[in-house]
Amino acid sequence: MKDYIDKITHCMSVAELEKVRVEIFGKKGILASGFAKLKELDGDEKKEFAANLNKMRDELNECIESKKSKLLKAEILTKMQKDAVDVTLFNEPVASGALHPVMDVMDRIIEYFVSQNFSLETGPLIEDDFHNFEALNLPKYHPARDMQDTFYLNDNRLLRTHTSPVQIRKMLSTQPPIRMIAPGTVFRRDFDLTHTPMFHQVEGLVVEPSDNVSFANLKSMLEGFLKHMFGDVKVRFRPSFFPFTEPSAEVDISCIFCHGEGCRVCKHTTWLEVLGCGVVDPNVFSAVGYKNVSGYAFGLGVERFAMLLHRVPDLRSLFEGDLRLLEQFR
Ligand code: PHE
Description:
Blueprint: H1 2-10, H2 14-25, H3 30-37, H4 43-83, H5 101-115, E1 119-120, E2 126-127, H6 129-132, E3 158-159, H7 164-173, E4 178-187, E5 198-208, H8 215-230, E6 235-242, E7 245-254, E8 271-280, H9 282-287, E9 294-301, H10 302-310, H11 323-326
Bound molecules: phenylalanine.
Residues 162, 164, 203, 242, 245, 276-278, 297-299 line the site of phenylalanine.
């Protein structure tokens, strides 16, 4: 009996204890053989032996039960300690993605115009001469058609050099009023510090079935937009030329880097050129069969905006996909 109490107390696990329990209480266990012996005894001897056996059974049982509950508690405790999570432990940071700065600025531009009730239009990247040039009043001899600037396909189609063909597609498929922007990719054969062969533009077009739309409307609309994007800047309209607008202007904002001191970014002019615009040329309206309408259009380079807003000095770095650069825009 003492031996078994010892065995029980020395058990290290519930499984081990179970083995000992079977040794004692099992069919071939010591108690079973004890009770078997009873048959051979008589009278007082039998009584005493039975009483002892019963006592022994109860004591061993109690001993096992209390040991079992201790072991269970200990086992749960070790499991809990083993599974514990140290929430203060330093871990390798998980890399998370982010919008490319160009797409981020594109989204901000789109959001502004959508808030001003402009609809969002798209067009094909592979265009034809009519939509990209002809209908936009770009005569055959215009330098923009030069092989230098345009990527041509073998079948005379081309990669659109600007988003302006979307204006044409929209006007050919609907009647005014039109109030649209067309964001998208454009392509030119150009590659240096400020030019990449693929870049992004946002085109804008407003057309009314009356002669109500004037340069003044265009001015105030663009001033609102540029102040929204760049904050409290001065906006300047400089006479310029585009075949598809007349009059045309290039739009400058006061330099957001030097605030009038003169710096490298503004080439000491204190102005930064940000977009082109104008009143839609009557020839464009004739090309799409519009009569008695008026409108204005503008076009901007998204990379240019991103470079200014994020202070990226070399346009090409926006296309290299270098994570060390891109991670700074998260
Ligand atoms: N399409 C012109 C360009 O790519 C920009 C522009 C659009 C100018 C609309 C005026 C009006 O340079």
